[in-house]
Amino acid sequence: MLSEQIRVVLADDHTILREGIRSLLEPEDHIEVVGEAETGKEAVQKVEELEPDVILMDISMPEMNGIKATSEISEKYPDVKILILTMHDEEGYVQPIIKAGASGYVIKRTATRELVSAIEAVVQGNTILHPSVTDRLLEGESSAGGSKDGDMYDGLTDRELEVLTLIAEGLTNQEIADELYISIKTVQAHRANIMDKLGLNDRVALTKYAIKKGLISL
Hints:
There is one protein chain. The chain is of the alpha/beta class. The chain has two domains: 139 residues, Rossmann fold, CATH 3.40.50.2300; 62 residues, Arc Repressor Mutant, subunit A (Orthogonal Bundle). It is 51% helix and 13% strand. The chain has ten helices and six strands. It has a six-stranded parallel sheet with strand order 2-1-3-4-5-6, with helices on both faces. It is elongated and about 55 Å long.
């Protein structure tokens, strides 16, 4: 057990899940949950405001997904350790998460003791991976020569990912325009580009893609 207090921020768009994790960590005298965030953008803001040691980050969040938030936090606040806590253990998530700057990757079904150990490990500078993804990561590294940046999202830009996420969440073109402070014509142009790049033709197909890639969760 570490002697110093570990300050933790929880970032997940599901309130009940944040409350559950908080209740699991509260009995640990050396771990203090100092804040919560429901979106990727809020996660970045909370890191700036609260200066935590660790942030537990979900992948699937509105406004900015966990991978993008991880990248921003790693760039701006390199001393903050980011532990991805997610339901996904598919190979496609592993490389982008580690490349974005995460210090660890654990699955939401992980037991409390394992989660506490993971938090302690990343604070000490270690990289922690759930056993189910370790082999996938090693396999990915051995065949990395043929990979390209952005492969996970098939070449979509950050703005296109934002628009896609909002489409999949059921927002209209007007609501997306209001949310991102852009015109409806710009939203329509992004939507057309997304469909062209992905080879998809309707909202249902876009939503399925967003779920598969972890941009939103059911």
